[in-house]
Automatic annotation (TrEMBL):
The keyword Protein transport does not apply. The keyword DNA-binding applies. Gene3D superfamilies: 3.40.50.2300. The modification 4-aspartylphosphate is found at D53. Keywords: DNA-binding, Phosphoprotein. This is Response regulator containing a CheY-like receiver domain and an HTH DNA-binding domain. It comes from the Bacteria. One of its GO terms (molecular function) is DNA binding. GO terms for biological process: phosphorelay signal transduction system; regulation of DNA-templated transcription. Residues 2-118 form the Response regulatory domain.
Length: 204
C-alpha cells in the first residue's frame, strides 16, 4: 500500500510518516506543497491514497482537490485539515473525495482511517460531522463571532499568529486585533489561558 502525505507542517507530516511507516505493508511518500504533490503523483509509482492538507502552499481548496483526483486517470484523494469546516468536508465528499480527516484525530484512528480509504472506502468521522452544531449552541461560543472562534481554534491548536493568518487568509495585525478581543471576552491575559478556557469549555 502506497500513501502520499502532502502537508506543509513539518512536525505533523513527520509524525504521520512515522506512524504510517511503522505499520506493516505501508510505503509513505511526502510533499510540502500542492505543486510538489502534483509532481510526485505524476512521476512516482501509483499511490493507493493521497492525503492533501486543505491549507498549504499552492493548494486552492476544493479546486486543487478536484485537480488531484483527476490526475493520471484518477486518484483516490482525501483532505486532511485542522481548519476546514463540516461544510467543506461535506462538499469534498460530494465531489468524490476518499474522505476527510481532521488533524485532531488520534494517531491510531488516523492509521485506521488511511487503511480504510486506501482500500476503496469513503471516510469521515461522525463526531466531527456533527460537532459543529454542538459548538454553535455552546454559551461561550455564542459570545464570539465566527472569525473569533476560528482564531481561537488556531490558537488552541498551538499555531502562531502567522500560521493562523495564513490559514484564515488574514493579515497578522488583523489576527492580533481578534486576539485582543478574544482575551477581553474570555477574561484572560494570554494565549495559553485562552486555549485552556476553550479546552475546558469543550469547544474544540
Amino acid at each position: 500500500m502506497r500513501i502520499l502525505i502532502a502537508d506543509d507542517h513539518d512536525l505533523l507530516r513527520d509524525t504521520l510518516i512515522a506512524f504510517l511507516g511503522a505499520e506493516g505493508g505501508i510505503e509513505v511518500g511526502s510533499a510540502a506543497s500542492f505543486d510538489e504533490a502534483r509532481e510526485r503523483i505524476e512521476s512516482d509509482d501509483a499511490y493507493n491514497l493521497v492525503l492533501l492538507d486543505y491549507k498549504m502552499p499552492g493548494m486552492n481548496g476544493l479546486e486543487s482537490l478536484t485537480e488531484a483526483m483527476q490526475m493520471k486517470g484518477g486518484q483516490r484523494v482525501a483532505l486532511i485539515s485542522g481548519q476546514a469546516t463540516r461544510e467543506i468536508a461535506e462538499q469534498a465528499l460530494s465531489l468524490g473525495a476518499a474522505g476527510f480527516v481532521p488533524k485532531t484525530l488520534p494517531a491510531k484512528s488516523l492509521v485506521n482511517a488511511v487503511r480504510f480509504m486506501a482500500m476503496g472506502e469513503q471516510y469521515a468521522p461522525i463526531d466531527f460531522m456533527t460537532a459543529q452544531e454542538e459548538v454553535e449552541q455552546h454559551p461561550l461560543a455564542q459570545r464570539l463571532t465566527k472569525r473569533e472562534l476560528e482564531v481561537l481554534k488556531g490558537l488552541s491548536d498551538g499555531k502562531s499568529n502567522k500560521e493562523i493568518a495564513r490559514d484564515l487568509d488574514l493579515t497578522e495585525p488583523t489576527v492580533k486585533l481578534h486576539m485582543k478581543t478574544l482575551y477581553r471576552k474570555l477574561e484572560v491575559n494570554n494565549r495559553t489561558q485562552a486555549a485552556i478556557v476553550a479546552r475546558d469549555a469543550g469547544l474544540f
